[in-house]
Amino acid sequence: MINKIWNDIERGRFSPVYLLYGTEQYLLNETKQKMIAGALQEEELDFNLSVFDLEETPIEVALEDAETFPFLGERRLVFLHNPTFLTSEKTKSKVEHNTDRLQEYLASPVDYTILVIVAPYPKLDERKKLTKTLKKESVVVEAKPLTEQELKKWVADEVKILGVSIEEAALDLLLTLTGTNLQVVANEVNKLALYGGHQVSITTEMVDKLVARSIEQNIFILVDKVISRDIGEAVQIYYDLLKQNEEPIKILAILAGQFRLIYQVKQLTSKGYGQQSIGSTLKVHSYRVKLAAGQARAFTFEQLQKIMLLLAEGDYEMKTGKRDKKLIVEMFILKLA
C-alpha cells in the first residue's frame, strides 16, 4: 500500500490531506521527503513549505497557514507534527487546540494545500470522532514496524530497484546482523548494492564483509558461537568489542538482556504462544522472537536459570569491584561452555 502512495507522490498525484502515523521512523521520514521533492520546486521551499509542532502551536493557527494562498507557486505543503489530541496519551503541553476547526477543514479542504498530519504513535484513539473523520477524509500512511515477511519483501523490492538481487541466505544474514531497524537496513542495502556494482546478486560473503554490526548483534553472534561450542570465536568477538572501547559492564548487561529474552521466549513457547503473540507480550519485534526461539532450543530451563544466576553474580562482582571487569565477562563466556 505504501509503495502505491509513494508512486503517486513521485508522479505528482496528491490528495488534499494525508495522515502519517506509526513508529517506523524510516517510513515517516521517507514519505515526508518524497512529498517535499514531489510537491515543491527548490526555490519554493522558503515560501510554500510550513512545519508546525502541535505541542507548541494551536491547530487553528496551523490551519490559517494552510489556508493562505501559495506564493510564487501553485501549491503549499504544510506538515503538522505531534497531534496528541488524536491519542489517549497525556501530554505535558499546555497548548489548547480548537479541534472543531480541524473537523471543519476536513469537510472542505482548500485545493491549493497539501496538509500532512504526522502522528508518530503506535496507535490512535479510534473512539474519537476526529480520528474517525480524519481516517475517512485523508490518505492514510501507516508507518508500522514491518513483519519478518514484509521486511524481506521490502529488501527484495529495494535491491531490485537498485538493479541487483540478493540471495536468500544473504538476506537472512543481513537481518540477523542489522536487526529490524528499517533505516539501518536501508543504509546497508544501499551500501551492498553500490559495492556490488555490476555483480548481479548480493552474496553472504558480501554481507559478512561489509555490514556493520551493532554491539547487540555482536552479542547475538557471540551467544550463537557458544551454542555451537565455538568458544574460541566467542572469546574473540568479546576481545573485538573491547578493542572498540565497549565497556565490560555494558557487554554483560546486553548478554543478560539476550538470555532473559531467550528464557522468556522459551517459557511462553512452552505455554503454546505463537511468534506474533510472544512479540506482542514482550514488546519486541517478532523477528527477534524467532531468532531467540532458535537459540532457546539449545538450552534447558535449568541451564538458563543457572546462566541468569551467573550473570547476576557477574553484575554483583563488577559493581563491588571484587574482580577485574574484563575478566568477569571472559570467565562467564568460558563457563557457558
TrEMBL record:
Reactions catalysed, as given in the entry: DNA(n) + a 2'-deoxyribonucleoside 5'-triphosphate = DNA(n+1) + diphosphate
Example of a GO cellular component annotation carried by this entry: DNA polymerase III complex
Segments forming domain DNA polymerase III delta subunit-like C-terminal: 216-336
Domain DNA polymerase III delta N-terminal: 18-144
One example of a Gene Ontology biological process annotation: DNA-templated DNA replication
Keywords attached to this entry: DNA replication, DNA-directed DNA polymerase, Nucleotidyltransferase, Transferase
GO MF assignments: DNA binding; DNA-directed DNA polymerase activity
Protein name in UniProt: DNA polymerase III subunit delta
Taxonomic source organism: Bacillus coahuilensis p1.1.43
